[in-house]
Specification:
9 strands; eight-stranded antiparallel beta barrel; 218 residues; elongated
Length: 218
Amino acid sequence: MNGFKSFMLPTLLVLHAATPLAGQATLAFKAGAGTSRIAFTGVELNEVEPRSGMTAGVSVTVPLAPRIGFELWGAFTQRGATATIFQLGEISYRLNYVQLSALGKATVPVAADRVSVHLFVGPAAGLETSCTARFTSALQPIELTDECDSDQLNTPSTSVDLAVVGGAGTQFALAPRVGLSLDVLYTLGLRSTYAGELDRTARNRDMTVQAGLVLPIG
């Protein structure tokens, strides 16, 4: 019994020293920028250009095991794209969401207790806060800008976007109780944002780079 205690005590001390932030719940303030595009089906397009946008939010990570955690993340994010329709003109979509993500997170230290890398994946739901569209005609000098579901544009959108989020990142210890995280995320939209009667779909695709300030809770 004494031998077992002699073995376990230094082992626990090593694990605790290697994960000063990963071994406890943390709060992170994150912000970044990226590009998004919309994958259309059911309509012939000449070109689809991405939209540049920003994201900002807060996440809470709860450890489930020494290297495994659960991250709940809420953020405001901008999405959209500009599509060129053959011989008709150009239409640009600007969609904004408040997105909630529930991510499983695996962390591996690479430089003692100073640097670690992590992978995460999980589902996300985005609540649409606004959707505007601008149509520029190629046949005559007409430009319309309005809400997506207006009578003029008639391109209604769904109020909730469902997606899968995956990515990777790294975290640096800035101080004993402060960390800096750098993440790259990819969001794959599963639900069509187009809610009209035509046989068309429009799904979000989003790539984001963000930084965050990580603080322990408690």
